[in-house]
Amino acid sequence: MRRLFLFFIAICLVSLCFSDDAEARRRRRRHRPRRAKIINEKKLFERIGGAKAISEIVDEWIRLNLADQRVAQAFTPVTSKPEKLGKMRRNLNDQLCEIADGPCQYKGSDMKKTHIALAVSEDQYLVVSDNLVRVLQARQVSEREKNELLARIGELRPEIVADTP
Length: 165
Ligand code: HEM
Known about the structure:
Blueprint: H1 2-31, H2 44-48, H3 50-67, H4 76-79, H5 82-99, H6 111-117, H7 122-138, H8 143-154, H9 157-160
The protein binds protoporphyrin IX containing FE.
């Protein structure tokens, strides 16, 4: 009888141990930071289509902005001087490429100084950003890549619009 009682106690202790373990495992799983599911994922630069795609996006973006009556006036510093337009194009290309983790480095002027000097308004910023959305949509850049690129460009907003808090 005593043996049976001891056996019963041992069973209880073992099952208690295991249930604690299971609970602890569950708790650890709940608090473990989610690891990125996709390993070895390509960089945004590659997913967008590489150097050629970035260059075409920049050309089309500039073309839309210069043709857009809502902001064209703001671009007269470059439209009046072809060499300045070429420089802006190169620097914008390097910037987009770098932002997308491509093999480029932005070597242009201080973004804030350039844009604050132009007194870029919130409305102008929205128009120019929207023109980029149009370019990406027209090229059928997938939703995920489009949003990633726009979010990264969005981080530059304080350097472009003067009254950003
Ligand atoms: C959406 C965000 C924008 C980005 C990422 C951006 C990026 C750039 C870059 C990289 C340059 C080249 C700077 C250099 O050559 O050193 C540039 C120049 C310029 N940007 Fe922006 N820009 C943005 C918005 C705007 C807006 C809203 C306007 C005006 C409506 C504007 C007007 C200009 C002008 C006129 C230049 C040429 C300045 C000069 O060379 O004298 N930009 N921008």
